[in-house]
Design a protein that fits this description.
Shape: globular
Distance between the termini: 17 Å
Structural class: mainly alpha
Largest sheet: none
Radius of gyration: 17 Å
Order of helices and strands: HHHHHHHH
Length: 183
Amino acid sequence: MLMHQGMGLEAYNASPTRRAVHAVYECCYSVVLATDLAGGRPFADHDSLFRQADALLFSLGEDSIDRVLQAYLRIGRRPRSPKSVCEQCAVWDDDPAVMTELNSEAGHYAEHFGFGFVMFVEDGAAPAATSGACCADRTLARIVDRLHNDQETERKVVRNELARINRARLERMLGPEGGYYNW
């Protein structure tokens, strides 16, 4: 759970450095990215913060990306979680055979590439996603498709997926313009 959910850009800009770093770390699992983003404050608007977060993510070395990937939960670890709705850990299907196949293919993926599978689940917020089957089928198809990538291509895909997940998490951290009343 994000402690800093809905804090607003103004509160983020005004936060003590430690708190600002912690808020972003909850979103991206990178101390370097969180520290550098906090050091770039103040941000004029959400988009400038998002662009800087993307630039920082894409500037990280592969070792840093590998450490980030270790923090991500496997498929189905948070079934239908509203807080993880756009991530692979919230993907679920009530059919045990589907979940077994998903986890088997995710295992093949990890063996092939040396890191766990991550993806931004585009239809995670859609009403059909609550049933899980739509997301599970699409996730399975994405794993199988991405297994055809070479290492270099997949590392690029992974960074793009992480950027999309980070954006969703940062949006949740900031909340609406001006934040919520409790900040």
